[in-house]
Amino acid sequence: MIEMMLTTALVLFAIAIAIALFRIIRGPSIPDRVVAMDMIVVNLISGIAVVSVLLETKAFLEVILILGILAFISTIALSKFIERGVIIERKRDR
């Protein structure tokens, strides 16, 4: 019973990722695309967690942690780029 529920969750995560890919391709604006990429990463993290439960292993927990950190940093960097046009501002004395 639990395996069927977890498999159904994986299928639903895959559908959500496909919808987010559609939003990235056809998104009306850049912020919509950034949110869709963040949504893909969240669904990917959730899918990896479900696979970890299905396989009864803790081997994927480090992958989940690293993917979450990278997704957070990339979302912040893209948001700063959209807002200001640069990611890292440098003060010039000249």
From TrEMBL:
It is found in: Cell membrane. One of its GO terms (cellular component) is plasma membrane. It is a multi-pass membrane protein. Keywords: Antiport, Cell membrane, Ion transport, Membrane, Transmembrane, Transmembrane helix, Transport. The chain crosses the membrane at residues 6-25, 34-54, 60-82. GO terms for molecular function: sodium:proton antiporter activity. InterPro entries: MrpF/PhaF-like (IPR007208). Pfam families: MrpF_PhaF. Coiled coil: none annotated. The keyword Transmembrane helix applies. It comes from the Bacteria. Belongs to the CPA3 antiporters (TC 2.A.63) subunit F family. This is Na(+)/H(+) antiporter subunit F. It comes from Siminovitchia terrae.
